User: Fold this.
Amino acid sequence: QVQLVESGGRLVQAGGSLRLSCAVSGLTFSGHNMGWFRQAPGKEREFVAQITFASTTEYADSVKGRFTVSRDNAKNMLYLQMNSLKPEDTAVYYCNTNPPVSSAWGQGTQVTVAS
Assistant:
């Protein structure tokens, strides 16, 4: 059973930085592409970033150049470094495999960026 536990979200001022973490269990982490996703109030969940099992990265245009996704296969951990945060980055952030396992969505972690 896949378990995903996100952490690190909080209230931050515009222009600030945050590092999100995701603890992964129940799968062979090193062999999976992993992604970060977010859902803002009243909007659909959207793709933010991906890191493949080979550590190739991909980003949504809205975060390119500001966010960095990384992974630690020894610890089964996924990270998202978020810099130059904007109010429009406010959302609940989730990690999952990519493509996502629908039954594995965790609680997410709330990021709120104040202007």
Observations:
- The chain has a mean pLDDT of 97.
